[in-house]
């Protein structure tokens, strides 16, 4: 069953319908996904157990899976079939006899190249060939202009020269290959809504590669070797919702890197060894709901770093080198979760605490998850713990430790050891 529902099935098919939260909501591919769901159900019935001895007809799906076949077995009558599933065999080439199918799925075989166009229906819509050994293509593969969905993740591709000359792809996944460049015919794929490029060796992004992709909603570029995102790289991606750029450890950002992303809702920049964020970097992102900056080397953030992010609901910056609680100035009125675990913050400024409390934020700091109206500070290996809005168990030294606890909410904090903090809540 693991070969039937792999990571992409969850992150590819279903992610296209998710809502941003993590993060992941449009219903544009419902019809196609309904067919795929039927396919998965059919495969599930035979994916476990002994080797199959023949194909099985299940309504409009012809299932020929897990038979260790090196060539196509005799096909049983299946007059309504438009989908053929060849998963989990030993095929080294796409066999003849598949011209009746608009969906051909042959992942987890031993294919070494993309098939001859003559072996497939000229109106084929979906071709699923992930988890093979594909490193090249037949010369006429590029004539398949009807393709809408092409899955080639975890193969051995080094370029995208195989893409159709007249590209009508809506969903393309080439993650987990050995791509070093995006130059070539990719820029002609103006109908794309989903593009998976993660886990490759991409070092740069051509300035025009996304210039025609105004319909693109999901772009995955994480775990590459991208050195920079020049100004205007994404300027034409006005429909983009998700952008992942994490695990590009040498990446350099500029103030215009995210220009044009007016509908972006999810941005992941974690694990990039970022030491600073250019002024105005997030200004073009008024619809951003989740921002992940974890596992970088950020030490300080200017007060206006997150200005204009009024739709932001989750801000995650765990495992940086911050020494001060960032001030959320002119932003983040919708913030619900603020994660600053594993930083070096000792004592937040009154201004910073005031900016956090204003949003009634669910906050994670120093290992604690604290709910609205409460900011709990538990800076392990530091001198001070601060509790905002906690009960009256504060105001003195904790017995057996050198740490000081105190409240700042008015009922508990009034008249206690640190009355100067009362103004934070009162304001």
Automatic annotation (TrEMBL):
Keywords noted in UniProt: Leucine-rich repeat, Repeat
SMART domains (alphabetical): LRR_BAC, LRR_TYP
GO cellular component terms, semicolon-separated: extracellular space
Ranges in coiled-coil conformation: none
Domain of life of the organism encoding this protein: Eukaryota
InterPro entries in UniProt: Leu-rich_rpt, Leu-rich_rpt_typical-subtyp, LRR_dom_sf, SLRP
Pfam families: LRR_8
Keyword Repeat assigned: yes
Xref: SUPFAM superfamilies: L domain-like (SSF52058)
Record-given protein name: Uncharacterized protein
């Amino acid at each position: 069953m693991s070969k039937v529902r792999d990571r992409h099935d969850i992150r590819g098919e279903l992610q296209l319908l998710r809502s941003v939260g993590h993060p992941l909501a449009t219903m544009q591919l419902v019809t196609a996904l309904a067919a795929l769901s039927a396919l998965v159900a059919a495969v599930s019935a035979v994916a476990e157990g002994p080797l199959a001895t023949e194909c099985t007809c299940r309504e409009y799906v012809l299932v020929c899976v897990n038979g260790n076949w090196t060539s196509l077995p005799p096909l049983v009558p299946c007059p309504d079939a438009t989908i053929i599933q060849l998963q989990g065999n030993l095929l080294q080439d796409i066999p003849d006899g598949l011209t009746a199918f608009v969906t051909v799925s042959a992942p987890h075989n031993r294919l070494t190249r993309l098939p001859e166009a003559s072996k497939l229906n000229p109106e084929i819509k979906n071709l699923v060939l992930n988890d093979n050994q594909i490193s090249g293509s037949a010369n006429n593969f590029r004539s398949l202009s009807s393709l809408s969905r092409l899955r080639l993740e975890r193969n051995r591709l080094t370029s995208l020269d195989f893409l159709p000359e007249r590209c009508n792809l809506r969903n393309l996944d080439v993650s987990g290959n050995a791509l070093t460049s995006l130059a070539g015919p990719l820029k002609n794929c103006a109908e794309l809504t989903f593009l998976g490029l993660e886990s490759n060796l991409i070092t740069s992004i051509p300035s025009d590669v996304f210039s025609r992709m105004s319909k693109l909603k999901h772009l995955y570029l994480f775990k590459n070797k991208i050195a920079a995102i020049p100004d205007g790289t994404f300027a034409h991606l006005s429909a983009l919702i998700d952008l992942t750029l994490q695990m590009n450890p040498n990446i350099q950002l500029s103030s215009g890197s995210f220009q044009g992303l007016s509908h972006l809702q999810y941005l992941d920049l974690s694990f990039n060894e970022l030491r600073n964020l250019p002024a105005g970097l997030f200004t073009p992102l008024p619809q951003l709901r989740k921002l992940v900056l974890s596992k970088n080397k950020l030490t300080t953030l200017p007060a206006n770093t997150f200005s204009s992010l009024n739709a932001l609901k989750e801000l995650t910056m765990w495992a940086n080198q911050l020494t001060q609680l960032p001030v959320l100035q002119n932003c983040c009125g919708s913030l619900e979760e603020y994660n600053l675990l594993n930083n070096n913050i000792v004592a937040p400024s009154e201004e910073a605490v005031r900016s956090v409390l204003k949003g009634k934020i669910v906050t994670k700091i120093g290992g604690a998850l604290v709910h609205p109206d409460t900011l709990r500070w538990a800076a392990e290996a530091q001198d001070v713990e601060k509790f905002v809005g906690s009960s009256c168990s504060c105001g003195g030294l904790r017995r057996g430790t050198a740490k000081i606890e105190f409240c700042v909410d008015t009922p508990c904090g009034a008249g206690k050891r640190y009355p100067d903090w009362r103004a934070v809540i009162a304001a």
